[in-house]
Write a structure and sequence with these properties.
Elements lengths: L2 E7 L5 H11 L4 E5 L4 H5 L11 H22 L2 E5 L7 H13 L3 E4 L9 H6 L2 E3 L2 H11 L4
Helix pairs in contact: 1-6, 3-4
């Protein structure tokens, strides 16, 4: 089986590439998908539908266009990794975790100890909580193991 792993969450560090590289080194049977990680492109995803004078409507249109990709990729994944960084509040990542929980998709959270409390419900529904990308790679190694 080739596992389809969706990478959700913060876009300001190279955590995605660390996981992808670790899995490639181990030759794990995993393919990765993700939301658009270019911040400007994501914010402007709905701009093709016309300009807006009020920021709310620009964000609203872009969120819906982004959701076409996000919703589809989460529905198709076997597992999601949801990363919460310390620089910004990742409301989109929390939403993705909730979507996974509602769909019965297993997910693993990836975040530092100092935000355990605000993520207690999200971690409560997760299959695991990791603090490093190396831990994520080890989990993927275990779950993709051919017996």
């Amino acid at each position: 089986m080739i596992w389809n792993v969706y990478l959700s969450g913060e876009i300001h560090t190279n955590w995605r590439q660390e996981i992808i590289s670790g899995c490639e080194q181990l030759k794990l049977p995993v393919v990765f998908t993700s939301a658009v990680t270019d911040h400007a492109a994501s914010d402007g995803a709905g701009d093709c539908l016309g300009s807006e004078d009020v920021g709310f409507w620009r964000d609203h249109k872009s969120a819906k266009v982004n959701a076409i990709r996000t919703k589809t990729l989460i529905e198709q994944c076997d597992l999601a990794i949801v990363r919460f960084g310390d620089k910004y509040k990742q409301w989109n990542a929390a939403f993705d975790a909730g979507s996974c929980a509602a769909l019965g998709k297993p997910y693993i959270t990836l975040h530092a100890e100092d935000i355990i409390h605000p993520l207690k419900e999200i971690d409560g529904a997760a299959m695991a909580w990791a603090t490093t990308t190396e831990q994520i790679v080890e989990i993927l190694k275990y779950v993709t193991l051919e017996q």
